[in-house]
Amino acid sequence: MLTFYHAPQSRSGRIMWLLHELDVPFETVRCDIPRQDGSGARDPRNPHPDGKVPALEHDGTLITETAAILLYLTDLLPDRNLGPVQGTPGRGAYLTWLFWYCGVVEPAYIAEVLGVADHPVAQATFRGRAEIAARLIPALEGRDWLVNDRFSAADILLCSTYLYFPDATPDHPDVRGWVERCAARPAYQRALVDD
Ligand SMILES: N[C@@H](CCC(=O)N[C@@H](CS)C(=O)NCC(=O)O)C(=O)O
Asked: What pTM did the predictor assign?
C-alpha cells in the first residue's frame, strides 16, 4: 500500500506525476504546509520529520526527499520501465541525472533567486545556468528523453523546473521540445487535475 503526502502547487507535484505514470493504486493525504506568503501551517497528519512534502509511506516504510521517492518507486515497479534498475543499461546515467538535480541544479537556481549565484562558493560548488544548459542541450540533441531515449523519472525531475518556471528553460529548440513532450504526457495532465 502506498500513501502519498501531498500539498498542491509544491514539489510533491512531481511524485503525483510519477504515480500517475506508474498507474498504480495509491492513497493521497492532502497536507497543509507553511507557505512562503505566511499562510498554511505544519500538518500533524504529515509524517515527514520536517513537516514538508513530499513524503511517501510504503508498507510501513517512510521515504522523504523527492529524488529518493522517485527512485524508490521506479525500483519498486521495474516492469513500468520508468527508470533503469541496477544492472541494466542506463542505470548510471539515471542516478547521475537524479542526483545532479538535487546536488547542483536546484541549489544553483536557488542561489540565483537569493542573488548569490556569483558568490565564489556558489560558483565553485554549483556553477549556474550556463553549465546546466551545457549538460542538458547535448543530452537532448537528437533524443526525446534523457536516459536510454526512453521517458523516465529523470525527465520528470529535471523538466519540472521548466514547467514551473518557463523563463529558466535553456534557450535551445531541443530543450524546449523536450519540455513540450513532457507537458503533453497524459499522466502529467492527469496529475495537474489531481493536484
Ligand atoms: N529537498 C526536499 C524539499 C521539500 C520541500 O522543501 N517542500 C516544501 C514544499 S515545495 C515544503 O514542504 N515546505 C514546507 C515547510 O517549509 O515547512 C525535497 O525535494 O523533497
From this structure: 0.97
